[in-house]
Amino acid sequence: MSLSYTQAGHAPSSPMVEMTKDSEDRLTISVSLRQDPLSVTLDGTAIFSLAISLILGLHLLQPFVIVLLIGLVPVALFIRNDFYNYLKLGPGGTPANIQGYLRINWFKLWALRDPLEPPREDPTLEPAEGLLGRSPLPYRCGPRPTVVGIAPQRQVDQQGSKECYLRLRKILQQHSDKNIENIGVGTSCFEKHGMGLFARYPFNNTCQGEICHVHNTDFAMHMNLHPSDLKEVLKKGWGQRHPLACETWLRMPVPRQFALVYAPRNMEELKIVCKIIEAAGWWVMAKEYEIDTLQDA
C-alpha cells in the first residue's frame, strides 16, 4: 500500500500503469511471512560482558544514569524487534527502511482501534446501495486469520493456496480482456507492487481508479467497497477494514472504504472472493460487471 492519497469522488479517466510481460515473468510467490516475539538469548561471552559493564557502571557512573541505561535497553530491544518484523512483511508501498518504519508508527497513532467495526452510514454516497445486499455472502468457515501491519498490511496465517492465487490472477486478466474498454489490469497504485484491477473511467475515485489488488506474498487482497458491502464482508468473516481507513482530522493515505479481504483457501472460497471483487467494481464504477469464474482459467 502506498502512502499517497486520492480523495474519493467522481473522477475522470484513470491513468493506469499497465503490467508488461516482463513483470509477469518476474512473478515471485512467497508465503514465509512471520512475526517474531521479542526474545533475548545471552551466551557466556554476553553474560560476562554484561556483568563487567554493570560492575564498572556502579563504580564510574551516577545511579540515575545506570537506572536510565537499564530502562533504555528493553526499549531499544523492542524497537529493534518491531523494525525487523516490519521488514519481514515484505515489499509494499512504504519504503522498507527506517524512514518508512517511522512514518508507519506515526500513522499508528491514528489507526482504527477495531478493524471489524463497520463504517458509518452516509446517505450522500453514490451509488446509494451496495451490491451484496442482493445476494448475501455465506459465512466464512473457521476463525479469522491473523493480520498485522499497516503498510504493508499482511495476513500471516491461513494463507490461501498457490493454485487459487494463480487462478485468481488469470480470472482478473480475463475479466479485463472481456471488458477492455472499461476495465484494465496493472501494477497496484496503492501497493506499488502486485497485480491490480482498475476502472478506466471511475465514478468514485480511489487511487487511479484501483478496484482491488492481490498480494503475491500472502495471497490476500485489498479493495474498495461500498460501506454496506463492507459491513456484509465484516459480518460474514471475509475480511476487515484497513487500519487507516478511518475518519479523522488528519488526512489518511487510503479511502475509508478500503479493506483487506482474506486469501481464498479453496476454489469455493475463490468464487466468494470474486463476488466481493464484483462489489468493489460496483463501488468504483457504479456499474455491475459479472466476473466469470467458470472460464478455463
Automatic annotation (TrEMBL):
Keyword Aminoacyl-tRNA synthetase tagged: no
InterPro entries in the record: Luciferase, Luciferase_dom
Domain Luciferase residues, every copy: 209-280
Membrane-spanning parts: 46-79
A Pfam family assignment: Luciferase
Alphabetical keyword list: Membrane, Transmembrane, Transmembrane helix
Keyword Transmembrane helix: yes
Protein name: Luciferase domain-containing protein
Species name: Apiospora kogelbergensis
